[in-house]
Design goal:
Elements (H helix, E strand, L loop, with lengths): L27 E3 L5 E8 L3 E7 L2 E5 L4 E7 L3 E2 L3 H12 L6 E7 L2 H5 L6 E12 L2 E15 L2 E6 L3 E4 L6 H11 L7 E12 L1
Antiparallel strand pairs: 1-4, 1-12, 2-3, 2-12, 3-6, 4-5, 5-7, 7-8, 8-9, 9-10, 10-12, 11-12
Helix pairs in contact: 1-3
């Protein structure tokens, strides 16, 4: 199977998401085992594949500063050689091991949610990938799963274009290696992030 490009991301986003390390005194901390960030790549104008990242971290602090960090080395395309190419050629994880996204969240709206209640959040998310920042409009849903657990998910997919984050050259190299006529530079990204109150 040929290599495919990734979002990266970011993320995020979907969520919401970050551009600095996780806050030490965060009110909410990401539960990686219960969370996912997936992206869809399209090759030869027809074949679509869903891939994801295995390791995410993040937080939402008392002020509503939300952070998501994506371990790019954890990319999972279900094909080992393709994972290697994504890391080495597309993301260049030896130099850029992570992508981050950040977003401001209205914590008063979040705190007012009862268990089982949902609120919609729309705002600007800043994705940082390969030392390049891009602003994305994030449309999210926040659900209070329990008193100490929140689910933040994309209400609409985030569309990240490789031209925005310096990935076009890497995509072209992947296309040549795979012998494909095309790999789409536009990548839809979805998020399902669970945060636990700490």
């Amino acid at each position: 199977l040929p290599p495919t490009p990734v979002f990266a991301g970011f993320g995020l986003i979907a969520l919401l998401l970050l551009s600095s390390p996780v806050a030490v005194l965060a009110e909410w901390t990401l539960d990686n085992d219960a969370s996912s960030l997936a992206y869809i790549t399209t090759k030869a104008n027809a074949a679509a594949e869903v891939n994801h990242f295995e390791y995410l971290s993040g937080s939402i602090d008392d002020a509503g500063d939300a952070l998501l960090e994506i371990d790019l080395n954890s990319v999972n395309t279900l094909v080992e050689i393709r994972d290697d190419r994504m890391r080495d050629i597309l993301f260049e994880t030896g130099t850029y091991p992570t992508a981050t996204a950040s977003m401001k969240v209205d914590m008063s709206a979040v705190r007012s949610l009862g268990v089982g209640q949902t609120t919609a959040v729309t705002g600007e998310a800043i994705l940082n990938l390969r030392d390049t920042e891009v602003s994305l409009t994030a449309s999210l849903l926040v659900v209070r799963l329990a008193e100490n657990r929140l689910l933040v998910s994309t209400n609409k997919p985030l569309i990240v274009n490789a031209s925005q984050v310096g990935l076009l050259a890497g995509i072209e190299k992947l296309r040549e290696l795979a012998g494909l006529p095309s790999i789409s530079p536009a990548v839809p990204v979805t998020l399902s992030l669970v945060f636990e109150k700490t």
